Amino acid sequence: MNINKSLKLFEEAKKVIPSVTQTFSKGWTQYPLGTSPIFLERADKGHVWDVDGNEYIDWPMGLGPIILGHNYPTVNEAVSRQMRNGTAFSLPHVLELKLAKRLSEWFPYGEMSRFGKNGSDATAGAVRAARAYTGRELVLCSGYHGWQDWFIGTTTRSAGVPEAVRQLTKTFPYNDLKSLEILLEDNCSKIAAIIMEPIGVEFPVDGYLVGVKELAKKHGAVLIFDECWTGFRLDKKGAYGYFGVEPDMACFGKAIGNGYPISVITGRREIMSIFDKIFYSFTFGGETLSMAAAMAVMDCLETEPVFERIQENGTVLFDGIKNLIDKHDLDGNIRIKGYPARNVMEYSGDAHDGLLIKSVIQEMAIGRGILCGGYHVVTYSHTKEDVDKTLFAYDEIFKTISEQMRQGKLKELLKGKMVSAVFRKA
Ligand SMILES: Cc1ncc(COP(=O)(O)O)c(C=O)c1O
Questions:
Q1: 239-268 pLDDT, tens per residue?
Q2: CATH number among 2.60.40.10, 3.30.360.10, 3.90.1150.10, 3.30.230.10, domain 4-70+306-413
């Protein structure tokens, strides 16, 4: 496979773009350097092409914003129609009203909505609203919630976040009601919000989400579900649709625009009304192309078997990978978690071995025309053939890895540079 152009552009980009990426998980540290493409150029349906013309089945799918598939016709049409009618207006556009009304039809708790561009806009806005509404400062969170100070200060990438800000957010472990209860009691009447991914890659144990909701209510904290991944994906109506638990507010991003930048904060009127008082305002908040895209995505979800096809192909992929892990005796080293629309492979040994296994799999997959970042985002446009081809490749890859590991020679397989973790283990 020739990736010469990618590598040449990489050298140029290093001089003008710090990290050579706008999104950490898309960067050169996340795929084996030297054997993986750095730059992509074109995308269609479930496939992408790199700058050297190599074609791949795309499994990261832009880190989740694509749910229908790249270059999806009805979204393209809605966006180009809107483009001819204007993109950025001087007063609110009627699409804002249409989308907010539609969200309130989809989500009973979503009585009012505000829009943003990235998931981070939504989570930061929801947290600010919760603080203003409760008059409290502390926030409890579980999962990943974006790049803003209030959250990233809790991670190993907290450089640049003031210590005083870091002290205001505490993390709690998923699926552990007792820990949450202790945190709430230790910080009695100081918690503004509990914000959490309703499901990351683990499913909640029985009663967990309801239990969190009860604890939030008891302690007067606003419950925010961060549905940036789960929204329109775990179920057509996200975690609310799947589990039936209504938060006070929810944040959506990624899939709602099928690749156009839009995020949503939606929630109960009583809390959302606080947006009259806080400042959540930016030039592109009401940008129309992305709202037109969101309406087209919702049309498609309502009228086509999007969810059903994703479930079907996603289940075959999930079960297939699980069987291959067993077949090649890799269950001590690779685990697959998640749900049909989004599965994630976890690798172990010690941290070093896990990253080595990840690197080898990604490198060998890329060599077989499969772009995989260790997880698979299944869209409406991925075909059965895409799934079969991927499983066929993993069968070969897992077999080779298993043999090499048994001989203690896994490292010899890797030709490129080992990938690194975005967040160090604390
Ligand atoms: C659950 C969750 N919340 C929030 C975000 C932040 O979204 P964005 O990167 O669009 O700002 C992400 C991004 O991956 C996410 O996965």
A1: 999 999 999 999 999 999 999 999 999 999
A2: 3.90.1150.10
